[in-house]
Amino acid sequence: MAEKRILMLVGDFVEDYEVMVPFQALQMVGYLVHAVCPDKKSGESVRTAVHDFEGDQTYSEKPGHNFTLNATFATIRVEDYDALVIPGGRAPEYIRLNPTVIGMVQHFARANKPIAAICHGAQLLAAADVIRGKRCSAYPACGPEVRLAGGEYVEIPVHEAVVDGNLVTAPAWPAHPRWLAEFLKVLGTRVEHAELASV
Known about the structure:
Rossmann fold
């Protein structure tokens, strides 16, 4: 079986967990994952932000890590990828202003390739006009954008995920176990549980 290739669209102040965890987890199960950012090259980095839920009216935001890109935005071909991942954070609100980014998202939607978006990633889906008629979760503050883009915003607990055809969405990083598990199913990956031998 040929190795599946996944494209991840990121930008400065992408949410730390929402880029780091899927980037590593999808490689762990054998996928090739390329993280790209408009106007940046392989080896350059984006800064991340940690969003946390500490009892305030919305999430708090703290400095995260530098996340190193492993592919060059200007030279990738979306046709070479089998699936798309859109992390949240502050990146989606401004990378959606890039027409090439919009075209990339539309390619995956038109080709019915798997798309996983979490938290504010829905802002990019809405801007690309690819959620019309689709059930979609997101950070609750993005609910109005989902509805205005013709999607059905689904209110679910923060640790759950929604699947609608090729689209897998979730409200925020506490949903990683469910969101990634559902994405793997859409990708056609079967994970077998094994007993770990004690040392």
